[in-house]
Amino acid sequence: MQPKFCPECGHALEMRPADDQHLRPVCPACGWVVYLNPPIAAGVIATRADGKIVMVLRGENPGKGLWGLPAGFMEIDETVEQAAQRECLEETGLVVELDELWGVWSYYHARKQTSGVLVLYAARVVGGEPHPGSDSVAVQFFAPEEVALDQLAFSTHREALERWRRTHQ
Ligand SMILES: [Zn+2]
What we know:
- By secondary structure, the protein is of the alpha+beta class.
- It has two domains: 1-36, Single Sheet (Ubiquitin Ligase Nedd4, Chain: W); 40-167, Nucleoside Triphosphate Pyrophosphohydrolase (Alpha-Beta Complex), CATH 3.90.79.10.
- It has two helices and nine strands.
- The strands form three sheets. A four-stranded mixed beta sheet has the order 6-3-8-7, with helices on both faces.
- The radius of gyration is 19 Å and the shape is elongated.
- The mean pLDDT is 94.
- Bound molecules: zinc ion.
- Zinc ion (ZN) binds at residues 6, 8-9, 11, 27, 29-30, 32.
- Zinc ion binds at residues 6, 8-9, 11, 27, 29-30, 32.
């Protein structure tokens, strides 16, 4: 999402080559340069004792009606680990403990003008009761081989789950 107005003086921004020749929103009045950086999302591949993975059916776009891992954007006042646990609790009602870092994925969709970085942790469900919450309309556990990879909202989640399948047979 491109800002339209200068955050310093309110003048309309223009796309110009900035200091390093990258095209950036620049204020022609005061010279302010807006640096756009990808937001960071965090989430979990969370399993219960039988090895099944918790997935959420998304109730909001992007990906409404498709499945995803519990994940969402970091708040400004939390760590990436806290964000992963909070998003899981909000979307599934489940409390998780994080194990290892599962992976980091970046994405850029030129057509949709969206980009981001997704950090996923392997996690274990240690409490709570599964129920849908923010952004989700259903919570369900799937064995790794049961996950319908063609019904996932995001290619990053598919790549993470494909690797999970290969290593958790
Ligand atoms: Zn300005």
